[in-house]
Amino acid sequence: MERVDPSALRWLIGVELTNYRKHAGASQAEVGKALKISGGMVAHFEVGRHLPSPQQIDVMLTHYGAPRYDIDRLGYLAGRADKSSWLARWNDIIPDWARTYVGLEGLASHVVTYAPLVLNALTQTREYSAGVTAPSSRVRPDQEERLVGLRMERQDRVFSAENPLHVTMIVEESVLDRPIGSSPEVMRGQLEHLLELGERENVAILVLPTAIGRHDGLEGQFTVLHFRDTDDEIQARPVVFVEIPDDAIYIQEQRQVAQYTRNADQLREVALSPAESATAIRTRLAAFE
To answer: Which of 49, 56, 125, 241 to pair with 78, CA 20 to 30 A apart?
Structure first.
């Protein structure tokens, strides 16, 4: 199931072009001369305001000394941007910073997320999602139901039979004990849903026991998005998403991305195994009997 959002694609391509230019030590004005356009337009390409043509991408990356594979890869991505966005229905309720993330998630092949406070949206039931959303100072009451609907729509890729999204959720044990929703049945249904998700080949639910104490996720929640095609070839470099109140930080510098990837790997090492995590969830379900 393909989830193309042109604005997210432009952003992703712009990130890659910026990284190549900086690595080559070229200025935007210099690149503009090679393309016979202004340096300002090159800047627009790099922030995702405008999309360069595959031919312009070829000229830029050749100027940067990029390998042919990367030139063809970004040219292919640019070609996919000529489509309408599946997110258009929700344009009026999601801010630009959130739309960028949801668009990137739709393009990703694997999402690795650390959930210290609530379960990731890709693993929520509708009732749990509604409980997370309301009441909220960040969401208008008349938009709550539509926002929940968007989260459910995002989950379609997890259950897709063709090229499903892979999800690794590393969740703090305390999240399983935090009551969300209007009744205990909401949490019961959510825990049952986690067990069902954990049985899927493309989903890993890993519980971090509180008893382990200090670990590399204590600085806050984060998500690493990986972009590969069905042949496991890199489509774009990974990106880290860090949500902050009413905004987000997107980390694209690959040295920093690598650090977050190492943090995620270290968290997986100290977390319970998938089987042990399922046991921890079942233990909590038993309390509802």
So the answer is: 241
